[in-house]
Amino acid sequence: MDIDKERFKRMFPHLAEEMTSEKNRLPIKSVRSDPESAEKVATSTFAGYDPDVIDFLRRCDNEKQAIEVINYMEKKGEITSSHAAKLKKQLKEKGVRSFGTKKGSDYYLRQTGL
């Protein structure tokens, strides 16, 4: 389909804005001509990664949320009762940020450079 830029802007103003904006740009760090090797590199950073209780605690905003996470993980058998007790003690004594800095919703995307 052949269409001029002005007509495209009139038909799809938001899409045109996204396409020309600096805000949505992603850097190209490398170029691979073999699609299989490119896909392997692109997905290998967190391939097979299974978040643990600390990963979930680092997403919490407050102590109440952290307690809910610990209780849930204990109930599901992901952590033992003694581990849950240690985590709760650390939470009470040192606070939710003692488990690490807050992981935002885009944490893994930023870590992979996307």
Question: What's this model, at a glance?
Answer:
The chain has 114 residues and is mainly alpha-helical.
Notes on the protein architecture:
The protein is mainly alpha-helical and 114 residues long. It has a domain at 53-112. It has seven helices and no strands. The chain has helices at 5-11, 13-20, 35-43, 53-57, 63-75, 81-94, 107-112. The longest helix has 14 residues, at 81-94. The chain is elongated and about 65 Å long.
Q: What does the radius of gyration come to?
A: 22 Å
The tally of strands reads 0
**DSSP helical segment count:** 7
Q: Secondary-structure element sequence?
A: HHHHHHH
Q: Structural class from helices and strands? A: mainly alpha
Q: Helical residue percent? A: 40-55%
Low-confidence stretches: none
Q: What is the strand content?
A: under 5%
Query: In angstroms, what separates the terminal alpha carbons?
Result: 30 Å
Overall pLDDT metric = 81
Q: How is the main sheet built? A: none
Global morphology: elongated
